[in-house]
């Protein structure tokens, strides 16, 4: 067993749970001695660089980044806007093609794949987006179905699989609706069902809650956590919202100017499902006031 | 029924049939060739999936040249080409050639515009799901843009009717030609007005049908 995290010695056991044994680490976070599957690397980004050209001016979005994401973890990526968080995530399924370096998913070098083999590899990597990116002219059912069609999923099993995925996100009764008839949180859950349909090992989330209100944010985070715990899907989540990252991630990379400033292990502190009751909002506001006094 | 219409009913029916043939072929050409040309125009644009400056420039130039021709001149200019394809430069079938080429150019531009309305994120999601270019076109882009494509075809069809009225110069016939020859040149003003009303009714029906279909299939 090996402690993850940077050259510090864990000092005090804080808690033992089904993820691992958690220690206080250098007074600023937590690290863990992790159980069995931890430590198997699912996503490996090696010396990757990416620049954009805008009116002949090169802009270095990612410079020489190396990052490993372990199987089963919820890996957060946080940083100021323009730090390169989204670009780093989009490099993981080659939506952005790196100028240099390698991207490996399950030891398969994505950066060497072209055409059909790249498409096949992408079918095993789920992705969800800030603005959901559903096909507005397809029903909820068909939005999930298309993902199976693309992967040549056996025809006779498709209906059952779509229903199963919709059930998982709690939308089986909405199968015949169109995205425009759904709330933001429901749309994101359809997107999650679509991403899960082909049983991916990895789920990439690009600002998945940034277009949602606090209620639905908690709802989506709960779904993501369930996916991680029940299905064992490795999740990478990009967000600028500190609360989101703190609530479910167990490892977080902080980015600055296209580089990883630091990667820390934290203990996910969970999320409070906010009440729809207006009093909840009042309580939250006054609590913030207390903090100010402290 | 006004006497004058009864008197000319054979000619009227024939001219309506000629208009239908000319416009029908134009619509076919627009769908079979204009739709792919427009899709390529869209896909070859800067920043799109098949970004290709050479192909885009060639298609763009074709569309611009055809559309900037005064249509009457275009018909005349195309006579040698029409003769090559149909064997004659005179008659309704011959008239369909310049009309169809204009239809391809006209509709492809509207297709390009309709596809530009598809959110980039949808194409991105399709790519992330491992869709091929063909799958992205059929299962995502065209599905998302279908209302715009129908409205574009409606607008195009109405324009084709208008363009078809001058096909008299190459003996193409049609309602417009009939209205000019009998109504205007033979001073049967009443007949001309009836012909205009017939065209107006056609245009109304087409516009209403197109708009209704577009509204029904648009779930955005």
UniProtKB/TrEMBL annotation, chain B:
A biological process from GO: D-methionine transmembrane transport
Domain ABC transmembrane type-1: 16-210
Record carries keyword Cell membrane: yes
Location (main, coarse): membrane
GO cellular component terms listed in the entry, alphabetical order: plasma membrane
Keywords assigned: Cell membrane, Membrane, Transmembrane, Transmembrane helix, Transport
Topology of this chain in the membrane: Multi-pass membrane protein
Compartments it resides in: Cell membrane
Residues spanning the membrane: 20-43, 55-79, 85-107, 149-171, 191-214
Family: Belongs to the binding-protein-dependent transport system permease family. CysTW subfamily.
Protein name (database record): ABC transporter permease
Protein's organism: Perspicuibacillus lycopersici
């Amino acid at each position: 067993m090996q402690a993850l995290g940077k050259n510090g010695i864990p000092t005090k056991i804080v808690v033992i749970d089904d993820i691992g044994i958690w220690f206080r680490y250098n007074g600023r976070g937590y690290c863990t001695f992790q159980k069995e599957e931890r430590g198997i690397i699912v996503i490996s980004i090696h010396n990757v660089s990416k620049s954009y050209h805008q009116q002949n001016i090169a802009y270095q979005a990612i410079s020489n980044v190396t990052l490993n994401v372990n199987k089963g973890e919820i890996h957060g990526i946080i940083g100021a806007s323009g730090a390169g968080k989204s670009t780093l995530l989009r490099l993981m399924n080659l939506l952005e093609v790196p100028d240099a370096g390698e991207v490996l998913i399950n030891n398969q070098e994505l950066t060497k794949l072209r055409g059909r083999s790249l498409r096949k590899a992408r079918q095993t990597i789920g992705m969800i987006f800030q603005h959901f990116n559903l096909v507005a002219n397809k029903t909820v059912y068909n939005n999930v179905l298309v993902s199976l069609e693309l992967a040549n999923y056996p025809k006779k099993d498709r209906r059952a699989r779509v229903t199963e995925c919709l059930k998982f996100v709690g939308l089986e009764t909405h199968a015949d609706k169109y995205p425009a008839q759904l709330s933001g949180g429901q749309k994101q859950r359809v997107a999650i069902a679509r991403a899960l349909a082909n049983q991916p090992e990895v789920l990439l989330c690009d600002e998945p809650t940034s277009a949602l209100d606090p209620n639905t944010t908690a709802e989506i985070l709960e779904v993501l956590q369930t996916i991680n715990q029940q299905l064992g899907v490795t999740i990478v989540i990009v967000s600028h919202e500190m609360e989101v990252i703190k609530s479910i991630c167990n490892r977080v990379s902080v980015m600055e100017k296209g580089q990883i400033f630091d990667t820390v292990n934290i203990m996910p502190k969970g999320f409070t499902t906010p009440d729809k009751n207006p009093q909840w909002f009042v309580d939250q506001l006054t609590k913030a006031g207390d903090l100010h006094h402290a | 029924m006004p006497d004058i219409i009864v008197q000319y009913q054979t000619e009227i029916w024939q001219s309506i049939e000629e208009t239908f043939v000319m416009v029908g072929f134009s619509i076919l050409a627009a769908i079979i060739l204009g739709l792919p040309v427009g899709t390529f125009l869209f896909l070859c644009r800067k920043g799109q999936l098949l970004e290709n400056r050479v192909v885009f420039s060639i298609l763009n130039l074709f569309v611009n040249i055809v559309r900037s021709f005064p249509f009457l001149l275009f018909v005349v200019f195309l006579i040698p080409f029409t003769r090559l394809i149909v064997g004659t430069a005179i008659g309704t079938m011959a008239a369909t050639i310049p009309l169809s080429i204009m239809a391809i150019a006209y509709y492809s531009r509207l297709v390009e515009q309709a596809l530009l309305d598809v959110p980039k994120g949808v194409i991105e999601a399709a790519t992330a799901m491992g869709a091929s270019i063909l799958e992205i076109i059929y299962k995502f882009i065209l599905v998302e843009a279908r209302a715009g494509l129908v409205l574009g075809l409606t607008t195009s069809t109405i324009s084709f009717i208008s363009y078809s009225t001058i096909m008299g110069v190459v003996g193409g016939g049609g309602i417009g030609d009939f209205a000019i020859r009998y109504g205007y040149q033979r001073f049967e003003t009443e007949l001309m007005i009836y012909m205009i009303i017939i065209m107006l009714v056609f245009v109304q029906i087409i516009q209403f049908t197109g708009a209704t279909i577009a509204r029904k299939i648009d779930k955005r």
